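To illustrate the input format used throughout this study, we show a single complete record. The first block contains the structure-token representation of the backbone; no residue identities are included at this stage. The design step must infer an amino acid for every position from geometry alone.
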């Protein structure tokens, strides 16, 4: 029986409940990072980092429209960096909007959505779930 796997380590797919992105927050300064760590790269605090569920809402920080990519990747697409509410900055693809600079605005509100990772599968036939951003 095939199942859905997370496309990245910081995407969590609980048995019950909705998918979410997991960050790690420093208990000393409040900075939020992706990926596990023992030391805060902002304030240097040691062993004060704890997992935190990141918000599904944020604002577009910056983007790039990609016109050339690997074979099999549909172009153009919008690669974006989003600042999430409550902390965390995440890179991903912006979907649900034309790849046209006249339609994409810096600071525009976006939400994180979880979908099939473009039909990719592993050797056992398991599909991957990924995250994307869409305008809200």
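Output of the design step:
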């Amino acid at each position: 029986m095939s199942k859905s796997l997370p496309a990245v380590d910081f995407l969590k797919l609980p048995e019950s409940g909705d998918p979410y992105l997991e960050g790690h927050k420093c208990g000393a300064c409040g900075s939020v990072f992706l990926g596990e760590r023992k030391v805060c790269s902002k304030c240097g605090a040691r062993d004060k980092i704890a997992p935190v569920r990141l918000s599904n809402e944020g604002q577009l920080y910056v983007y790039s429209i990609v016109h050339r990519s690997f074979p099999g990747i549909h172009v153009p697409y919008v690669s974006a960096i989003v600042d999430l509410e409550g902390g965390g900055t995440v890179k991903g693809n912006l979907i649900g909007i034309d790849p046209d600079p006249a339609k994409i605005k810096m600071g525009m509100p976006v939400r994180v959505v979880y979908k099939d990772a473009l039909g990719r599968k592993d050797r056992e036939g398991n599909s991957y779930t990924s995250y994307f951003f869409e305008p809200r």
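Structural context for interpreting the output: The longest strand covers residues 109-121. The chain has no helices and ten strands.
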